[in-house]
Structures are given as structure tokens and as C-alpha cells.
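Late entry, written up from scratch paper. The run itself happened at the end of the previous shift, but nothing got recorded in the book at the time, so transcribing now.
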Amino acid sequence: MLKSAQVDLYDTPYVHFVLSATARGGFSGGVAFSEYGFALGMVTRSLLAGEDSVESGYMAVLAVEPIYECLAWYRMLPDCQAEMWDGLWNTREFSFSSDEPVSGEASHVSAKIAVFDDGKTCSMTITSGDGCSDIDGIFPEMLRVVRRHLSSTHFSFSLMRLGYCKIAFKGDYLEVAPRVYAAAQSVGALLIRRGYFPLGFTDESDIRSMPGLDFA
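Output as recorded:
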């Protein structure tokens, strides 16, 4: 099959490819392979013009992105895939802007919380300012909030530069992970109280939305 185009469908946020192959009943859910032998995605529907029959259309193939997201969400992503993508699918980022959003978008991101969680280990980074300096001066407060949630036996700081810190956690995953999310939520609450606007999620409670752990 030849990949003819990439399309964004109105009823889904994920990328689809259009294949120049005849769509037939029963193809849905099948894997579509590229001419190079790797999985392009999953067949989802036929694309038709008006009232044409299914067999006269093209096949739409859902890209593999949501498959990775689903596996990572339920902490089932194979280690080989996690290593290949360098933690991408197992990391959730929560971005904030200190500027008033205009038409749903902000002019720049001023702070970020990133939580890595693969179901076996957990880590966290916090960022403030432009990535090189703490322009807003809130970074020390963010660190203090994290310290209040964690004892020195459970974490270690690696200050990469002013306004950017990696936090590694030690100990049992089931004990450590709730602490990580509690700390991340509190940092998010601090930023919102200080006038930052969350980008791409509703409020700091979304940070607790990973399944399988009770953060109450």
C-alpha cells in the first residue's frame, strides 16, 4: 500500500494516514505496514466522497501514537520501546505561563513540571524562567514545596542550572510514587496561586490523574 496523504480528522485528535488501497469490510483493526516493513498504524475507516460505496474509497489508518500513549498510561510499555524513545511516552509534562492567555494560548511558558513514571521508577523535573535563568524568581519556592513533601531518604536534587532541577527518587515504587505526584500537585497549586495559568490541563488536580495510585 502507498501512503498518499496525512490528514487531521474533525472527530479525533490523532493523525491519520490515507492509503491508496481499496477499503473492504473487515479491514478495520488490522495493522497497515509501510513499504519499508514497519507498522504505519491501524486501519480505522474508509474515506468516501458523498454516498459512494465503501469499496470506492480509500483507507484511513490511525498513526501509532495513541498505541504508545495507551501502553504508557497503563504502565505496560515494553522496556525496549521506552529506551528507544528516551522516556518520552512515560513522561507527563504540565506547563504554566505567567502571562494572561490570549485566545487560549500564552506568549511563553514560564514554568514546567515533568513527572516520569514507568510503573517501576519515578522521577521529576521542575523548571522556571526561560530555561537558563529563574526570571520570575519563583524557583526557590518550588524547591521548598518539593522538600516539604519528601524526606532526604527518598530523593536527591541535581541542580542543572538556575531554574532547572532534576529530582531522583529512591526506595519502593509504591511508596515513592504517591509522594512524587503529591509534590507535583503542590508545586502546580503554588504556581496557580501566584498567578500562573495552566496550559493544556484544567488545574493542578490533573497532575494526580494517573491511574492505579491513590493520591487522596
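Residues 4 and 88 are 28 Å apart (CA to CA).
(Scratch paper discarded after transcription.)
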